[in-house]
Amino acid sequence: MLWNFTRKRDVGFAIIALLVLVGVAPQARAQTDVAFIPHTSPYPLYLNPEARRYNIKWGNLEARFITSAQVEFNDNIILSGTKPEGDISFGPDLQIGFQYPLSKRNTLEFNVGLGYRFYLEHPQLATFTVAPNSKIYYELLFDDVKLSVHDSFQVSVDPTGHPDISGSTTNAQAEISNFRRFDNSVGVQGDWKPYEDLTFSLNFDYAISRALTDSFIGLDADTYSWLASVSYKLSPRWIVGFQATYSWVDHLIAEQNNSANLVAGPFFSYKPSQFITVSGSASFSFNTFDDHGTTADTSEFSSIVAQLAIDHRMNSHTTESLHFSRSVGQGFGHNYNDTYTGQYNINTKLTSHLTVSASAVYEMFKASGTLGESADRFLLYFGTGYQLDRHWHLGMAYALALKNSDQTAHNYKQNRLTLELSRAY
Q1: For the chain, percent helix, then strand, then coil, each to nearest 5?
Q2: How many CB atoms lie within 10 A of CB 96?
């Protein structure tokens, strides 16, 4: 009787948490681009804390509290190839997180990064920011079933996350500097392990995206996604499986066409050694679009998408990774972008106080439509951080975004230099 009561109580907590999450964040959609592509960002990558790295403990509660001040120089905030506009932004940031075990089998986790940005030459662009790693996560375990409720959210101010957007994309170049969006994705996932090596998963996500200014409201949309997968551990080195995703996108403004998407195919993970992991997937993607919007594009996508990742832990101080992919993503002014990507990352701890991170990304994409743009981009990131003492950390980063398009007006080059001082309590 006690076990039944606990189980019913946990299910009740999950339902309440899901209702709360849907209620508190009803206006955003998380981006569905390949997760491992870290586009140039106004926040140095090395400052993002590990999800479970906490610096405060109070009873069973583990928490982290980090404040920082940041200054950034950006020589092309409007991504223009002809008349770039530079500016210096600065502002405070606050990162808060906690992990609390509600019971031996249930955990509640919350992480959020908040900030505010001021601009010297463009004060009208001052805005709040929410870091991409912000989330709420609640996990329940009973017998061979794991149920998790998750909510992730961010305020994005970086238009380079969309390869087809540049300074000449809009009627007025200044509009691109107003690129500010609130994205939120809330969902529930169930994992069932009837046997030790066999796992069935079912996931539902409701995601919404809203512009925080009048610019790019045509991208405002609601997305509903179902994902089902089965995986089997063949050996300590091999995991194989099959997954299928069905989603549909409803745009609020009659500019972009609504779409329905079906993606299905096998995936695998292989560990040739304890230091190397090779993973990948290949799926058939079928994307259809209606005539909801004013976009003069009747194209549909029907082809293979895939990704391959090689992760290598060279030693206790250095890790590197190599990724390749073909993906299809939402277009702006057209239905979709067909993108090929290659990326190399390396992270190393040179001394007990000094860390270095670097990333190089090459993208080649083709926009749908009869006059669709074809372009390639090169994204470079280099960051270094120095731990001054137990609490204080100094970081510096450089990011380059370079686009070469068959439509000359869409070319651009952007340089960013960032300096940040943070304190962990």
Answers
A1: 10, 60, 30
A2: 15
Query: Distance between CA atoms of 149 and 7, rounded to whole angstroms?
Result: 16
Q: Can you list the domains of the chain with their CATH numbers?
A: 2-424 (2.40.160)
**Nearest-angstrom CA–CA distance, 131 and 129:** 6
Q: What span, in angstroms and rounded, lies between the C-alpha atoms of 139 and 188?
A: 10
Sign for the pseudo-dihedral over CA of 132, 138, 141, 146: negative
Q: Are strands 127-142 and 181-195 parallel, antiparallel or unpaired?
A: unpaired
pLDDT at 213: 85
Strands 198-211 and 181-195 turn out to be antiparallel
This prediction has a pTM of: 0.83
Assess whether pLDDT exceeds 80 at residue 258. yes
d(CA 126, CA 155): 13
Rg (alpha carbons) of the chain, rounded to whole number: 22
Residue among 293, 281, 173 nearest 229 (CA): 281
* Helical (H) or strand (E) element with 15: helix 2-24
Q: 3-state DSSP call for residue 174?
A: helix
Structural tokens at position 390: 């137990």
Residue range 391-413: average pLDDT? 93
* AA identity, residue 364: M
121: left (phi over 0), alpha (psi -120 to 50) or beta: alpha
The model's pLDDT over 121-154, given as tens digits with 9 standing for 90+, comes to 988 888 888 887 788 989 888 888 999 999 998 8
CA distances from 383 to 42, 108, 158 (A): 12, 32, 18
